[in-house]
Amino acid sequence: MSIKTSGLHHVTAIGGDPQRNADFYLKTLGLRLVKTTVNFDDPGTYHLYYGDQSGKPGTLMTFFPWKDAPTGVQGTGQATTTSFSVPEASIGWWKRHLAAADITSSEVKNRDGEDVLTFRDPDGLTLGLVAHPQGDPRDPWDNGHVPAEHAIRGLHSVTLSVSKEDATAEMLTDGLGLTFANQEANRLRFTAGEGGPGALVDVLVTPDAPRGLVAAGTVHHVAWRAPDEATQAAWREELVDSGVNVTSILDRQYFRSIYFREPGGTLLEVATDEPGFAIDEPLLELGRALKLPPWLEPNREQIQRALPKLDLPSENDLERA
Question: Domain VOC, which positions (predicted)?
Answer without folding.
Answer: 7-132, 154-273
